[in-house]
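User: Design a sequence. Structure:
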């Protein structure tokens, strides 16, 4: 019987590429996004569009129930939905900080909760959580975003231990710099939150770094991440982590080698952060 996969955040970028990759590997793929009109390209390829808001419990429950009703199974869950909320921790409203966690963390974990009973019944399944190299490093004005990715890394590690006895794998994907809408959205966010107060110089430096032409040229294709997810989904014994895409492995390695202060200095210079307020 054909295996079934659910990919969230599938309207563009990594999610779109992943849906196409898993379909090419023989999966029946459900592509989830808040707006199904943005899933038409995938629908044209035979991928099944699914309206889903990962901040709505009713929406997530309905989505899983729909998949089970149509295929009777869910073999792979790819938690890819997410965005980068940037701005000084002091400036970002708590409502935005909470929403960042709702999308990047609680949505992913709720979908895992909903999928796991069906995976346990079959004694197999793979949950793939897309975190970031930002789940291992820190950058200025990225506190809320990095907080979600560090949290998702820890939750994934614990979930891997809990589900192993049931034949279920939990895999972490740690993208580096990827050519998606992420950078422009994060840059817009940091400018909106912090360019009019005490952190204005930092905010402009960070936003400029994110959207610079030089940076854009170095970014990797979303296909790099889709290929890693494809490997994780089909491997008999997948790795616990796949760090790939521009800068991912070097940055994670560098963070492990440098002291906290040493990495602070490196990342501040790399983002063009002013040395004084």
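Assistant: Done.
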């Amino acid at each position: 019987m054909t295996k079934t996969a659910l990919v969230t955040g599938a309207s563009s970028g990594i999610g779109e590429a992943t849906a196409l990759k898993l379909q090419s590997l023989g999966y029946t793929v459900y592509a989830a996004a808040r707006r199904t009109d943005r899933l038409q390209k995938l629908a044209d390829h035979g991928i099944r569009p699914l309206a889903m808001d990962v901040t709505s419990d009713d929406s997530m429950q309905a989505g899983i129930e729909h998949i089970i009703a149509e295929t009777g199974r869910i073999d792979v869950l790819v938690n890819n939905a997410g965005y980068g909320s940037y701005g000084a921790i002091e400036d970002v409203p708590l409502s935005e900080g909470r929403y960042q966690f709702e999308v990047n963390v609680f949505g992913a974990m709720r979908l895992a909760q909903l999928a796991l009973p069906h995976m346990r019944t079959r004694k197999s399944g793979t949950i793939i959580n897309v975190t970031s190299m930002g789940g291992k490093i820190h950058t200025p004005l990225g506190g809320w975003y990095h907080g979600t990715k560090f949290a998702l890394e820890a939750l994934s590690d614990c979930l891997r231990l809990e589900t192993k006895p049931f034949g279920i794998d939990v895999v972490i994907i740690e993208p580096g710099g990827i050519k998606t809408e992420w950078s422009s959205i994060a840059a817009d966010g940091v400018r909106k939150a912090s360019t009019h107060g005490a952190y204005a110089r930092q905010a402009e430096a960070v936003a400029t770094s994110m959207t610079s032409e030089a940076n854009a040229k170095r970014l990797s294709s979303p296909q790099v991440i889709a290929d890693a997810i494809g490997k994780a989904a089909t491997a008999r014994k997948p790795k616990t982590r796949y760090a790939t895409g521009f800068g991912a492995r070097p940055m994670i390695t560098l963070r492990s080698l440098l002291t906290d202060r040493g990495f602070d200095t490196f990342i501040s210079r790399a983002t063009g952060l002013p040395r004084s307020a």
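The chain has one domain: 4-183+221-257. Residues 12 and 180 are 8 Å apart (CA to CA).
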